[in-house]
């Protein structure tokens, strides 16, 4: 199974690199597979590469769903003693 995440570009760096933000966590990724990316854009990231641009509303909805799933999993683990 593969997982690609919506991430916001926070800084463009030399050599087709960029810094992204995912829930407050920063990571450097490659933009080698994309063109015309700007700070503030949301991109789909898989194994360190931006694959495509994503609509900001869709990115926010997806990130909100991930947060809900994380909270539900935490509550489940807490209630079952796992």
Can you walk through the features of this model?
By secondary structure, the chain is of the alpha+beta class. The protein has 1 helix and 5 strands; from the N terminus they run βββββα. The chain has one helix at 56-80; strands spanning 5-13, 17-22, 25-30, 42-46, 49-54. It has a 5-stranded antiparallel beta sheet, with helices on one face. It is elongated. It starts with a strand and ends with a helix.
Radius of gyration: 15 Å
Order of the strands making up the biggest sheet? 3-2-1-4-5
Which structural class matches the secondary elements?
alpha+beta
Order of helices and strands: EEEEEH
Number of helices: 1
Instruction: Identify the overall geometry.
Output: elongated
Strand count, sense and barrel status of the largest sheet are: 5 strands, antiparallel
In helices, the fraction of residues equals 25-40%
How many E strands? 5
Brief summary:
This protein is 30% helix and 39% strand.
What layout of secondary structure does this protein have?
Layout lengths: L4 E9 L3 E6 L2 E6 L11 E5 L2 E6 L1 H25 L2
Antiparallel strand pairs: 1-2, 1-4, 2-3, 4-5
Descriptive labels:
82 residues; alpha+beta; five-stranded antiparallel β-sheet; 1 helix; 5 strands; 30% helix
């Amino acid at each position: 199974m593969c997982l690609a995440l919506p991430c916001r570009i926070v800084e463009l760096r030399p050599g087709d690199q960029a810094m992204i933000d995912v829930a407050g966590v920063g990571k450097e990724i490659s933009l080698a597979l994309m063109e015309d990316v700007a700070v503030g854009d949301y991109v789909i990231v898989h194994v360190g590469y931006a694959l495509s641009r994503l609509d900001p509303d869709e990115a926010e909805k997806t990130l909100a769903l991930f947060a809900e799933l994380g909270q539900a999993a935490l509550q489940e683990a807490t209630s079952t003693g796992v």
